[in-house]
Amino acid sequence: LDTQLNVTENECQNYKCCLDILEQMNEDDSEQLQRELKELALEEKRLIQELEDVKKTA
């Protein structure tokens, strides 16, 4: 029972730390990550098209 209590307390502390980190992130960080995600999605599409073009010529 003590072990389970310790595990639960540790999980609670970890969860609190995660919440603290999320609160520290501001909207600018989130917006920047969204922009980067969109850029990476576009790059992925470009690379897929490039790969398909290479396969067609091979």
UniProtKB/TrEMBL annotation:
Residues 19-57 form a coiled coil. Keywords: Coiled coil. This is Uncharacterized protein. It comes from the Eukaryota. The keyword Coiled coil applies.
